[in-house]
């Protein structure tokens, strides 16, 4: 079985989710958990974007020992210098340089001709290579780029020193077949492609990010980029936990492994949800609150007889502990707080007081208060505050 490298961009692309703004300590806490989870590569941020991001990337680089730590740079010398200054103390430092290659981005955003784009990408990859052994280059909006042009620029940036070529589906436009074919095309048309690792990076605008990522893997990609819980710009990045578990559960079909420690999945997901404030939908695959709940009598009966009747993943595999805490009208504030923490949500004292009062009111006229009832109370308070 060949190994797929997992590249986590929760702290860079994930943090680009509207409304998310992590401070240095929070980013470091997430990076440490990503390392425990077994991420091969962590994109810690975009050092040139702000002093705060620079310092966060630097702190992560100084503390993370097992995972490669990357910073993002545009094809601008000062961005590349900023990444170097931020990650140079890392055990495994690396840079991720990107430039758009689609006609619409080149004309309207970059205002450069295709020839100028090639020239810029090559010279900046060469500049990055003077400072880094590990240089990833991304063709932003690759899936809306001309394939022949893409093949030409890839060949040249490989000659300039790139070690990883990433072809993002920046706007989540590709279908699995398109996306897989694009990698096949590059393998056939770029003569030096075997010198580099191929990487995929999918956004979820059409809800196809996981399927597209799996298609890329089946067409020769060995690095998968994405974010925990699928957070990121617009509809988000691919959810790495989904890709990891799809490869694992269907190893009969895919034959790939990873270095992820699956039992850290839930803990990582909860931490990211808590610190970003982007709570995971209840029916989210792998990490949603309902992912291992069985509602109908037929399903409950089946699971009691043999869990595999309706469960293809055991909760323990992904670090989900069975829910043993049932709350009712005799429950106290402490148990209520523990339940809220179980959801990965933290309330201020005032929010906890309001939530507990509402819970108590509910227990007066509802015999059985479910986790969903409590979750609804808490989320309403969180949204109002
Ligand atoms: O989606 C994208 O194209 C990106 C690049 C910066 C790699 O996030
Ligand atoms: Zn992206």
TrEMBL record:
Keyword match Glycoprotein: no
Annotated Pyruvate carboxyltransferase domain residues: 4-266
Top-rank taxon, per record: Bacteria
Chaperone in keyword set: no
Family stated for the protein in its record: Belongs to the alpha-IPM synthase/homocitrate synthase family. LeuA type 1 subfamily.
UniProt subunit comment: Homodimer.
Protein name: 2-isopropylmalate synthase
Full-length numbering of the shown residues: 1 to 385 of 514
């Amino acid at each position: 079985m060949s190994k797929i490298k997992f590249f986590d961009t929760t702290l860079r692309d994930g943090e680009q989710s509207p409304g998310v703004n992590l401070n240095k300590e929070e980013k470091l806490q997430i990076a440490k958990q990503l390392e425990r989870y077994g991420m091969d590569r962590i994109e810690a941020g975009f050092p040139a974007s702000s002093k705060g991001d620079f310092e966060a990337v630097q702190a992560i680089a100084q503390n993370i020992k097992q995972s490669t730590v990357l910073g993002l740079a545009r094809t601008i010398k000062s961005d590349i210098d900023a990444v170097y200054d931020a990650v140079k103390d890392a055990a495994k430092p690396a840079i991720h340089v990107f430039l758009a290659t689609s006609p619409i981005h080149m004309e309207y955003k970059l205002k450069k001709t295709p020839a100028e784009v090639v020239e810029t990408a090559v010279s900046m990859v060469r500049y990055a290579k003077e400072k880094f052994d590990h240089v990833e280059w991304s063709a932003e909006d690759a899936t809306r780029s001309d394939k022949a042009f893409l093949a030409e620029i890839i060949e040249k940036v490989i000659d300039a020193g790139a070690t990883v070529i990433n072809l993002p589906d920046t706007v989540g436009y590709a279908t699995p077949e398109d996306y897989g074919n694009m990698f096949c095309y590059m393998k056939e048309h770029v003569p030096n492609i075997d010198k580099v690792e191929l990487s995929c990076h999918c956004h979820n605008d059409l809800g196809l990010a996981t399927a597209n990522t799996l298609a890329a893997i089946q067409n020769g990609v060995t690095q998968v980029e994405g974010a925990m819980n699928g957070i990121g710009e617009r509809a988000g990045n691919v959810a790495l936990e989904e890709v990891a578990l799809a490869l694992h559960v269907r190893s009969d079909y895919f034959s790939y492994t990873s270095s992820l420690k699956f039992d850290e999945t839930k803990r990582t997901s909860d931490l990211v949800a808590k610190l970003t404030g982007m709570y995971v939908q209840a029916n989210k695959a792998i990490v949603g609150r309902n992912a291992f709940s069985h509602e109908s009598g037929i399903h409950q009966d089946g699971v009691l007889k043999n869990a595999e009747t309706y469960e293809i993943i055991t909760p323990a595999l992904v670090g989900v502990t069975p829910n043993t805490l049932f709350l009712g009208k005799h429950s106290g504030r402490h148990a209520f707080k523990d339940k809220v923490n179980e959801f990965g949500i933290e309330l201020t004292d005032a929010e906890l007081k309001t939530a507990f009062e509402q819970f108590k009111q509910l227990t007066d006229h509802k015999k059985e208060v479910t986790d969903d009832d409590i979750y609804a109370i808490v989320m309403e308070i969180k949204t109002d505050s």
